[in-house]
Amino acid sequence: MSHFANEILILASIFVCFSLTVLWSRFFGERGVVAWIVIATILANIEVLILVRAFGMEQTLGNALFASTFLATDILSELYGKKAASRAVNIGVLASVCFLAVSQSWLLYAPSPSDWASEPIRGIFSNTPRLIFVSLAVCAASQKLDVMLYHRLWAFTERRSGGKKPGLWLRNNCATLISQLINSALFNLGAFWGVYDAGTLASIVVSTYAIYVFTSLLDTPFVYLARRLGPPRPGSASA
To answer: Which domain holds residue 128?
Structure first.
């Protein structure tokens, strides 16, 4: 498959992940966004094992899913407040702990002679504990930072403008860009130090943050859309 196909797939993945985040918010409210955070966090911890070359750089997958969790916490902050966003971060971390425990228990079984799935599953999930432990620490810290910065900036824009709505683009982008810088550097160094050579690792860190900068700018319209659509109506599927 050509590198050009990788670029198309990554851009499509970003659009799909962001759209799904907004749709889960619109149809299922706060609980829907929290559910998406759990789904995206678990899938991203698996997808990040795949290394591809796209946009002229070596990069891991999982960036679109990770980025959508920051979009999700921003939507929760905007629609439901700081406590809801912080609670969602805690649930995402707990979901990763549960996933780690369950996935590692699979490796304890002795496979049947006719089994075909154990070997590839062991190849994938034997690498997951390090990734998830690093992800737990880094993502929890960076997402907590994102929520804190979001509301600090919101208080600042509210004082300057006299209203709660103005400045969404500022709090969304600044909070995400700063927290994603921390996330990109610490996660990739912690997860892949000793796995890749220094040049490849540096390329992964730079490319990951470059994607996060792009996705942070791209997710702003989705936050505006989620705010415009608002929570589900009473009596809808979220009730």
So the answer is: 3-107+116-229
